[in-house]
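seq as requested:
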Amino acid sequence: MAVLSPRLSERLTGVAYQLGWKVICRFPQSWARWVFMAVADIAWRRQGPKVQVLEANLRRVLIYQDSSPVVDGPVVDGPVVDGPVVDGPVVDGGELRALSRAALRSYARYWLEVFRLPVIPVERIVSGMHFRGSGKEMMLAHLKAGRGVILGLPHMGNFEQAGVWVIASGTGKLTTVAERLKPESVYQSFVRFRQTLGFEVLPLTGGAGPFGVLAARLRAGHLVCLVSDRDLQESGIEVELLGEKARIAATAALAVHTGAALMPTATWFDEDGWGACIYDEIPVPASGTRAEKVAAMSQQLANVFSEAIAEHPQDWHMLQRVFLADLDPARLRKNHNHPERSVAGALGQVPPPQGSGT
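struct tokens:
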């Protein structure tokens, strides 16, 4: 079988995304959903590299559920029958495979909604959001008082739908960061798509870095939303996530630098809509260096992520390696045991505020 060149593969990928936005929204929703679920099931049966990574991540969720007294979850017991082979505690293979299939179907639903979101009425997005807790009111109160807010999210549910909902709730607009995907046409398509939703989109790479602009937006009392459960710039913070060492983005550095409210947030899918929770603010510690403050806040953020993921594991769309045991050792050595370097990498060339720790 012929192997596509990287350039041709990227071109075909770009064409596929363009067709997705132009064609999928014209199909009857029931037809489109059937196609996307069928594609998800095919990918699940083929057990490709991404599915194997997904199952390795979900394996940690099952172990965490079994070991955590505060999270209800399936019982973890018995040998791995199918899926990735990982040293450590064993999980039931059938249970893991069932969860990975549900996760891939959830991921397919995400993409279906992304392509159809331009034709979904805002009223439907607002009425279909089942919000839990009083976090929304606290977020809006901070913004009304002129204090910036950072919503730190894991890769769960539908970020774009949640963004439309939060803007419709009264935030006015939000600023986020986008990973520069390949080909460039796909990245630009996502930027344009998110801009039509009311997002300000900053590139993660390919410029001076987004930190300075994010800090300016927060100091002006605006909302910043950042997906934070994965280290994309090799400047992340080492934490314990789902009971195992992992690296997440140094989102907490923004809160330490600007004084903005860092509020963990999770989104998930409900059968007839969407669910969300904005958790309590993670305060900046009163003492310690900047690096120590960022590390402590990052661990608290990871704790909330762990609870949210364990509650809705099928909606955690993590098809990339995030746990230290799965990462390249050379990459780990870059910032290992040096949180100051991680914070410096997150801050870029932005000077610290006067009076901050070193």
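The first helix runs from residue 6 to 23.
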